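Lecture 7 notes: from sequence to structure.
We start with the chain below.
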Amino acid sequence: MIHVPRTVTATLAALALAAGLPGLAHGAPRPATGQQSHDRIPTTATVGADGQLPTGWRLTGQGANRQLVWRAHEPVPMGDARLTFHAGDRLLGAPVADADGKTFRLAIGDQRLTAGTELQARTGTRRVDAAAPARTPAKGAPRASAQPPAQAPANAVDPGKPGRFHTARGEYSLKSVRLPDFPEPVEMRATVVGPTDAPGRRPLALFLHGRHYTCYGTTEEEQTGDWPCAAGSKQVPSYRGYLRAQQLLASQGYVTVSISANGINGQDFAAEDGGAQARSSLVRQHLAHWADWAGKPKGTPGAVRAVAPADLSKVLLVGHSRGGEGVNRAAMDSLTKPPAAQDGYRGPVRWRIRGNVLIGPTIFGHNPVPDVPSATILPGCDGDVSDLQGQIYTDGTRGVSRGAALHSSLYVVGANHNFFNTEWTPGQSQAPSDDDYAPGEGPNRVCSPGTKTRLTATQQQVAGAVYIAAAARLFVAGDDKVRPLLDGSHRSAPSAGPARVLSHAIGGNRKPLIAPSPALSVSGGRVCAQVSQDEAQTCLVENETDYSPHFVSWQVGTDPDRHAIDARWSKAGKPIGIGLPKPVSVTGSTALALRVIVPPNTKDTKLDVAVTDAAGRRAVLGQVRVDGLAAHQQMSAHWGQEVRVSLSAASKARVDLARVKKLELTPRSGAGRVWLLDAWGWRAGTPAVTPVSLPRVDVGLAEVPEGNSGQRTHRVPIRVSGSGTAQVRVFEHNPWSDEVSQRLVTLRPGTHSIDLPVKVTGNTRYGYDYRNPVYVKALRGAVVGADSGGLLIRNDDPMPKVTVEPIKDSVTEGEALSWRVRISEVADAEIWSVLMAQKPAKGTELASDDVDRTWFEETFFEDPTPVRPLSQASQPPSISAPVEGGELTQVVTVPTVKDKVAESEEVLQVQLITYDNDGKELKGPVLTGRVRDAS
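Predicted C-alpha cells for the same chain:
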C-alpha cells in the first residue's frame, strides 16, 4: 500500500505521546510528495563509550518521563507496518510521532543503553533511520536474476476459470456512520458485482481494502490522508481495486461487494489497535444492510437489486493489508461480542462467516480467529508489511481451539504489496500510485521489475483472484478438490499463469505430533525461542538478510510460548532426535507433514525422516528435499515449507502409530541448517467446521490521576466475556524500566475479569501523562479482541512558565545570535518550545546562506540551497528550544557566517511557542536578532 501522509494536529500528537499509545507509531505523518527517499543506512549508529548517542538520537526527561527520541531528516511515511525502535536485535517498543512527522518518542523509563549498542528505527524488516542523503536508485534489472522455483504439478481442478453466469456491476452509497473515538463520520460506499442469472440465493464475498491515501488532486504533491477530503480534491477509490477478483467470483455465482474505508484510514492514526475494531464495525454495518436487503424490500439500492439475492449464511471476507486485520476482527466479533463502548455496530448477527482471505495483512494484536478458516497471501516482495507478519494468522491458531479449521499460508514469489489493488497500481489507478518495493532500492535479483521472479501487476492480480476463488470454493462451497492448492500439497493453478505460489497449512485433517517447546528432548539440535531478547536463545539473529515471518515480534521482546527446533550440521549422517515427553497418536493419518525452514538461496537440503514408538520400534519413512527461497536483503524469506512422507513404512515395520515417542531427521546432504516449526499426522480431506464462541478477553485503558504524594492502587480493566475454561498470558510493562512481567492466567466458567492491580506514585512536578502498558495473548480455548491497554496516568501538575531572554541578539557576521529559554521550576518531562522564524516587519531578513550550513541542515533538515529567508527554511520554520527534564534552561544559538559582500544589517525575527501537555500552542514574545556586516 502507498504510505499515507497525515497532518496530525499538535493536540492529538501530544495526547497520543502522553498516553504512550502505539497508534501514532504507525500513523506518522509524511510529506505530501510522492515517494519516500530511502536514505543510506549508517554502518555505525552505536552508543559511544561515553554514553553519547548517534546522530539523530537523544534522551530526555527522567523517571517514567524519560524518553528515547529520534529525529529523521524528512517526515517518515505512514504505512501499514508500525515504526519500532530497536537496540541491536532487542525490541525497545513502538514510538509516537510528533506533529512534524520527523520526531519520534518512546518512553523507556530507567532502562540503560549500553556502549556499543546499535540504535535502529524500523518498519517491518526495513530500517528508516539514515545517515546520509538518499542514493539514486539504479535502473534496470540486476545482472544476475534469481531463478523462480519449479512450477508445481497442476491441480485437478482450477478455480481460476470463469464461471457460466452473466454479471452486473453497480455501486451504492448510504448515510455515513459514526464509529467510537472517530470524530468524523465514515462513509458507507461500495461497489457490487454479482451474477444476474444464478438460481436461488448466492454466497456473499465482501472485500475491504487497506490503508492508503484518502484524497488526491491534480498532482502527486496533493495526495493526503485527510478526512474528509478538502474542497477541490477527490477521494481515492481504493474500494474499486478488486474488480478482477469480484468479476471472477461473480461469474462463478458469488455476489461480491467491495466497501470503502477512507474515513477510517484518515482517522485511525491515534487508534490503539490501528483501526482494527473500527474496520470490523464498518464490515458488520454493511453486512447488516445486506441482511436487510435479503428479500429486496423497497429502498434496496439498485446495484443490489440488479444481482442475485445474497445468502448471508455463506459469507467470505477478503481483507488487504490493514483490511485483513479488520476482517479478522469482524469474524471474531461475529462470534463473540466486543465491548459495547468500543463497537460501532450493536445489532444482531444475521450472517455466518465461512472463511477469511487475508492479503499482505497486518496483525498487530497477534489475535487470529482460530475457528474461522483462513488463507493468508504473503507477497514475497512486500515493501510495506515487509516482515510478512500475516503469517501469524496461521501460526497463531495452533493449539488454541479444536483445530478443525484449516489455516493456510500462501507465499507468492515476486508479488509486492500494492499491486493486488488496481487503484494502487501505476498505469491502472485513477490517483497517483507506486510500486511499494521500488522506491530507493538498488537492483534486487528477486524483486526488481524485469527479473525472472518478479510478477507484473497483471500477473499478480490474476494470481490473487485465482487464490481468492480457491479459498471461496473450499471454505464456502466445501469443494475439497481445490484444497491441494492451499494446504501444502504442492499443486498449482494453471490459470494463475507464471506465478509461483507455495503453500503450507495447519488445522484441517491434521493431528499434532510435535509443537516445539522446552518439554522436548532434542539431540543434534536445540529448542530455540522464536522471539527473545537473548541472542543465545533466539532461533534467528536478525540482520539485513535474515528475517522470518514465523519469528516476528509482538508487543513484548520475549514470547515464552513460541519455539522451534534449530539444527546445524557440518556433514551428513548425524541424526537430529526429537523426543516427546509422552507418546502421541497419529492413527488414521496417511502421511507425516512437517513445516521446515532452510536458509534462503540454499539448494538440495535432504533429510531422512524416521519415527520410533514407545516400545522402541523404528521406521525410516522416506526422504524429503527442500530448496531455500530466493532472497535478497531485507526480505523475510526464512519461510516454512511443507514436506510430507508416507506412513506406510511405519505400518510395515509395525510401529505403533498410537504411541509415537520420537521423530528423527537425518541430514543426507553436506553442511546445512534446518528449523522445524512443527510436525503433524496428515490425511486428505477437509473436516466440517462448527462455529465456536470461545471466552473472549478485551483489555481496556483506564485514566487515573497521578496524585501529589504517596501511592494509590488502581486496577487495569481486563474484561472477560463468554464462558468456558481457557488460558491466556498477561504481560505488564514497567514504565520505569524495560522489565516486562508475565503470568499465565486460567479462566474458569463465571470469570468476568482478570485482576491486575497497579501502584501509582504521585508527586508535584510537571510531567507527561504516561502509560502502564498491559498486553494479553490467547493460548488455549480463548480469543483476544483488544490485546493492549493498561493505565493512563494523567499528569495533574501545572506546567512551569516558560520565558526567553537574549544573551546576544546583536552580533557581527561570523558570531552567533543566542537566547536563553528558562522555565520557572524543574519538571520531570521535557518542556517543548520552539523559536518560530517569521518574516520581519522591516529590514533585510537573515537568509540560509548567512548561517552555518551544518547548523541549518541539522536544525531544519533541509538543504540551504536554493538560498531563501529563514522564515521559508522549512515547513514550519522552527528552531528547537526544548528544556530537558531536570533542567531549568536551554540556550539556543544561531551561528552566522562571515562573507565578503558589503550589505546592510540583516534581521532574524522569531516567536517563542510552547506546547502544553494537551498539545495546545502557547505563544510567547517576539524576539529580534540583528547581524551587522563585517566587511
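Points to note: The CA atoms of residues 389 and 552 lie 6 Å apart. The longest strand covers residues 921-932.
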